[in-house]
Amino acid sequence: MKCRRFRRLMLIALGIALLPALVWGLIVVVAPTDWARVHLVSVIERASGRSVGLESLSICLGGGVDLVNLKIGAPGGLADPWLEAGNVHLDLSLPSLLFGKLDATDLEIENARLRVLRRADGSLELADLVRSSSPAPQSTASEPCGPSSLKFRLQGAEVQVVDEPTHSHVTLERVNGEGLWEDGKNINANLNGYVNEGPFQLTGSLDRTPGRPSFEGQFRADSVQLDDGMSILRYLVPVLAGTSTKVGGVLSMEMYLRGEGDTCERLRETLLGHGQITIDPIELEGTELLAEVERNIAIPRRSRVASLNSDFAVKNGRVTSKRLALNMAKTPLVITGWTDFDGRLDYRMSLEGLADRVPDRARRLLADLDVDLDGLSTLRLSGTVDDLTVSLTTPKPGPSSAVNHLLERQDKQRLKMIGQELRDKLFR
Which PANTHER family does this chain map to (predicted)? Predict the structure, then answer.
């Protein structure tokens, strides 16, 4: 008798244990997939506040749901979605699906296309996803707006970064990676892929704390082909300022940035970072810098292919270059200065080691005239990233201005010939 009671208890316990699996199997077999699709779309729209489109949905026998051709756009703007994903797998639990709670623990996305847009007025298309919603006035503690713990993986994604204020459009291709979204606020990601045929790595974190979101990230890229969609580089490399034509070259760079704030003004105040850039080779043909310099100096065609190395720092609303070395043939040009976030710039460009390369007789004559070689060889780059002005620095007043009146015509002719010899020697 006791044995039969024990068997009954075991069967009841086994039935209770298998009940969720049986119910799930029943849902898979008999549940209308269109009803489930509409229901899930409604849940995602309520959770994100965005327009959502979904071609089809299938419930997996082993748990979770598969989504096909998911689209998410601005409210009422599904015709131009910022996210399109060919295949999405959500590890949703049975209670979450039945009660309309979008609290997945695992997310896999394949063949996705994501657009990150900064509009002409400086606002971000995804600004509300960067900042977390503030808690209600009657609430004593902030409630997370997002999953409690979600692991996500990307495979074969494409990310379009569009920055309208700087006229930049960069596409990241074959993006793979993974990340973790915790407590509805903290997002950490590690991504890799290709940009203009060159590999890149991106590691970053985003803290969506209400009232003071912050971010930190590091970007590295190698062998990237320059094109006209990379206009934002003009803020980092003044050589490209004012350029309207395509500049050819191969770029490698490392950059670290961090900042906080949910407005452009606050980000401008808090943005800090540093980095290194190498462009080797860089085609100077068509640059505003070369055009301005050639108004005074004839530069041989072979010298228009150069290499560039730069260290820069981001602070106080400026990108500052302490030493940007532009190597043209045998002529090392050193550029120092800054570009602010509004596009204004101010740089000095000089020939490094000019005094050591001047012919002896030219050095003796210049010494007699009390001419400062460093001042003589300095150019100023000013204006904006869209309108560059190159000018000679104003010579310091001194004896040289008086000596100029004492020069005879023959001396002036000799000085002109020596100047031409100096120019040819520098650019030979």
Answer: DUF748 DOMAIN-CONTAINING PROTEIN (PTHR30441), PROTEIN ASMA (PTHR30441:SF4)
Q: How far apart are the first and last CA of the chain?
A: 108
Residues 6+ apart with CB under 8 A from 191: 154, 175, 176, 177, 179, 201, 202, 203
Question: Could you tell me if residue 156 is left (phi over 0), alpha (psi between -120 and 50 degrees) or otherwise beta?
Answer: left
User: What tokens does 182 get?
Assistant: 């915790």
Q: Cβ neighbours of residue 55 under 8 Å, at least 6 residues apart?
A: 68, 69, 70
